[in-house]
């Protein structure tokens, strides 16, 4: 059932017939909307290469040097060895696999299911329901960082784009230069994504008030609707269309060559397999479990350049490297993991951009909106907002963590007593909070460049479990300063004229809003109610995540500038785990772009399937580079000119 968690009967008794009727009505409307958009082609027809992982038949060994890769139609027999195995069908993995498949045999392994038939994923109105669903089959895997902050990681084809708030905005030109990407290639790759999955939002009145309010308080100029990262206030893109229907990175797979691509869902990769007989360990394939828990092995071909590309996200990628024996020696030893390569930086320097929000109750109903407007300040703080918790009473009473508009009860329990049981009791009690308490919206601030760093460690060798993660929010004093600046901006915004229209509150109310946020159930951190005098304390007590966590496989530390994992052959990491800073105000645009753009350079790497098997990358001089920059210029070079350029493989 679309409405989450409470059985229809309980729902009926608890509330009333009208509520149930409304819930069913919205569900039917959603179905109608789906049909009216011509989406009636079953996903199995649209994406014939996606199948259950149990249908994969393993080979018993890696290819010998004499064997050659064979190919057959993707939905027919097995392809024997792949040019590329992409692990993680997320924001970077889908565009990467789709583009690679134009010329190479590609296997994409995703641990979750498909997003297409999942109503919680598909509709904007259900954004919070996916996050609230903490079951093993949820598209979102819930975790709590050791800081005591609720968090989520994707577990579905499409990755973060299937569970996120949809805001789409590019990285700044300065960011692109700083990380050494080729601006031309970047500028060609964003539109490839945008044409397929990005939309201009229907600008809701509340978002209009936020925009006007931001301009009122001096976050100017007004940059209108743009994907570009510019100081001032702007409206960005969204992956939700005008029907409120989500378009995910999984849809980028429709650009794939269906004959060259196999996508396996519910394929949980356990580890990367190596041949350790040579001087340097060389990747041969991966071990994964299917939906029944049965193990399978998949291998890359022996062709020079054939690789495993890890795109499991900022939590999944360092986790998989560690599980595969790449990481700090002492940590691997503790868990009896055979060491393949000692690298003390794997899982280190994890960052999460702290977010603090003020809940603003309104004097009337406002439509639901996620992020549409953003204020980009010169002090490294971004201001965004969301509104409305429409739908049914049922969904409203779910446990939403950050997106919870409820007035918390958990915070009244002393921190040490905040056990799982206490949380469950809290969730049950929450159902008694009146519906009227939920008219309102959030204003939030994100710190753009947090200097506080954390780390990720394995707790066990089960790939399905979350590793332990700590972000050490506000351990660096500069982050606290930025936060206080952001809270002051939010205060001004609440007091601005465009907002008064919604609140009709006077100046004194701001403190009330702050206290409301302090008492709300936003994290498990001990808090100091009624201490809003100290904005530093407010920042620490109410810190939450905007889910833009990154790091763990930094360039120069874990991967080189071509995103190759240092110390081993045939392995790259391509996703948010390689970022030192999160790109743009929100990262998904750049992560999808990266999947596309990086492949454009890989194209020159091994010989395309279609052109026979005569040229090997081994024949090409990999060590020289015209520009000396990473993943530059290659798109402009035809393959026959590649020898001076291939250093920029990625
Ligand atoms: C709730 C939420 C809201 C957000 N809102 C926004 C927003 O509005 N705008 C924005 O720009 N960004 C937003 N973000 C952030 C953005 O979505 C992420 O930064 C981005 O999607 C990360 O991309 P990735 O490729 O690094 O990882 P992911 O997209 O998470 O991809 C990793 C994939 O790997 C799979 N995987 C992991 N381990 C394994 C394994 N062992 N075997 C097989 N598969 C595996 C996962 O299931 C997943 O599909 C949000 C994120 C969340 C969670």
Which characteristics define this entry?
disordered N terminus, 2 domains, 7-stranded mixed β-sheet, alpha/beta, 650 residues, binds flavin-adenine dinucleotide, 6-stranded parallel β-sheet, 25 strands, 17% strand, disordered C terminus, FAD/NAD(P)-binding domain, Cholesterol Oxidase, domain 2
Give the SSE map.
Blueprint: H1 8-14, H2 17-36, H3 43-46, E1 50-52, E2 84-87, H4 93-100, E3 106-109, H5 119-122, H6 127-132, E4 140-144, E5 150-154, E6 167-168, H7 173-178, H8 183-197, H9 205-216, E7 222-225, E8 232-235, E9 237-238, E10 261-265, E11 268-275, E12 282-289, E13 295-299, E14 307-310, H10 313-323, E15 326-327, H11 329-334, E16 341-342, E17 348-350, E18 354-361, E19 373-376, E20 381-387, H12 393-396, H13 420-430, E21 440-447, E22 454-457, E23 468-470, H14 477-495, H15 497-503, H16 509-519, H17 535-541, E24 544-545, E25 571-573, H18 588-602
Helix pairs in contact: 4-18, 8-18, 9-15, 14-17
The structure holds flavin-adenine dinucleotide (FAD).
Explain this structure.
A hairpin with a 5-residue loop joins strand 4 (140-144) and strand 5. This protein is globular. The longest helix has 20 residues, at 17-36. With 650 residues, the chain is an alpha/beta fold. The strands form 7 sheets. It has a 7-stranded mixed β-sheet with strand order 7-8-19-20-21-18-24. A 6-stranded parallel β-sheet has the order 1-10-3-2-14-25. The protein is built from 18 helices and 25 strands. It has 2 domains: 41-62 and 73-197 and 247-350 and 456-471 and 548-608, FAD/NAD(P)-binding domain (3-Layer(bba) Sandwich); 198-246 and 351-455 and 472-545, 2-Layer Sandwich (Cholesterol Oxidase, domain 2), CATH 3.30.410.40. The relative contact order is 0.16. The two termini are 44 Å apart. Flavin-adenine dinucleotide binds next to strand 5, strand 11, helix 10 and helix 18.
């Amino acid at each position: 059932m679309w409405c989450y968690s409470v059985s229809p009967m309980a729902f009926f008794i608890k509330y009333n017939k009208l509520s149930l009727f409304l819930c069913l009505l919205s569900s039917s409307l959603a179905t109608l909307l789906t049909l009216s958009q011509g989406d009636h082609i079953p996903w199995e027809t649209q994406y014939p290469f996606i199948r259950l992982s149990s249908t994969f038949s393993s080979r018993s060994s890696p290819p010998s040097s004499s064997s050659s890769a064979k190919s057959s139609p993707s939905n027919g027999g097995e392809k024997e060895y792949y040019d590329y195995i992409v692990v993680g069908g997320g924001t970077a993995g889908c565009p990467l696999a789709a583009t690679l498949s134009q010329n190479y045999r590609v296997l994409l392994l995703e641990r979750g299911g498909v997003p297409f038939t999942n109503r919680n994923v598909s509709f904007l109105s259900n954004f919070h329901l996916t996050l609230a669903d903490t079951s093993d089959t949820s598209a979102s895997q819930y975790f709590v960082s050791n800081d005591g902050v609720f968090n989520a990681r994707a577990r579905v084809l499409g990755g973060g784009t299937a569970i996120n708030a949809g805001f789409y905005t590019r990285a700044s030109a300065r960011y692109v230069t700083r990380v050494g990407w080729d601006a031309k290639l970047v500028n060609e790759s964003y539109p490839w994504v945008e044409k397929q999955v990005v939309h201009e939002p229907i600008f809701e009145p509340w978002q209009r008030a936020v925009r006007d309010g931001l301009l009122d308080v001096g976050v100017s100029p007004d940059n209108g609707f743009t994907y570009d990262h510019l100081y001032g206030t702007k409206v960005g893109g969204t992956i939700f269309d005008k029907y409120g229907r989500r378009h995910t990175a999984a849809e980028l797979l429709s650009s794939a060559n269906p004959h060259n691509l196999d996508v396996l869902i519910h394929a949980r990769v356990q580890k990367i397999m190596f041949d350790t007989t040579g001087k340097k360990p060389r990747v041969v394939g991966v071990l994964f479990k299917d939906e029944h828990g049965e193990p399978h092995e998949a291998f890359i071909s022996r062709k020079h350049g054939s690789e495993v590309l890890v795109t499991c996200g900022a939590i999944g990628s360092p986790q998989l490297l560690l599980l595969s024996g790449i990481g700090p020696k002492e940590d691997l030893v503790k868990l009896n993991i055979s060491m393949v390569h000692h690298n003390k930086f794997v899982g280190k320097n994890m960052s999460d951009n702290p977010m603090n929000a003020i809940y603003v109750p309104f004097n009337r109903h406002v439509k639901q909106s996620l992020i549409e407007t953003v204020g980009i300040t010169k002090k490294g703080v971004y201001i965004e907002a969301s509104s409305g918790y429409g739908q049914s009473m049922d969904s409203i009473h779910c446990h939403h963590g950050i997106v919870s508009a409820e007035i918390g009860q958990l915070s009244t329990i002393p921190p040490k007593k905040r056990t799982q049981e206490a949380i469950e009791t809290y969730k049950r009690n929450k159902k008694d909070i009146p519906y009227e308490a939920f008219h309102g919206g959030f204003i939030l601030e994100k710190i753009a460049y947090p200097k506080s760093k954390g780390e990720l460690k394995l707790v066990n060798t089960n790939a399905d479990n979350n590793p332990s993660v700590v972000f050490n929010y506000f351990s660096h004093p500069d982050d606290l300063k930025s936060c206080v600046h952001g809270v002051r901006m939010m205060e001004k915004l609440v007091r601005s004229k465009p907002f008064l229209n919604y609140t009709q509150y006077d100046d004194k109310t701001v403190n009330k809003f702050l206290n409301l946020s302090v008492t709300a159930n936003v994290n498990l951190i001990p808090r100091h109610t009624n201490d809003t005098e100290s904005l530093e304390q407010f920042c620490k007590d109410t810190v939450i995540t905007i889910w833009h966590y990154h790091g763990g496989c930094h360039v120069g530390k874990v991967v080189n500038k071509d995103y190759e994992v240092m110390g081993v052959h045939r392995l790259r990491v391509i996703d948010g785990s390689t970022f030192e800073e999160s790109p743009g105000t929100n990262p998904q645009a750049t992560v999808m772009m990266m999947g596309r753009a990086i492949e454009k350079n890989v194209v020159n790497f091994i010989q395309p399937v279609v052109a026979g098997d005569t040229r090997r990358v081994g024949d090409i001089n990999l060590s020289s580079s015209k520009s000396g920059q990473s993943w530059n210029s290659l798109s402009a070079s035809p393959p026959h000119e590649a020898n001076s350029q291939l250093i920029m493989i990625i």
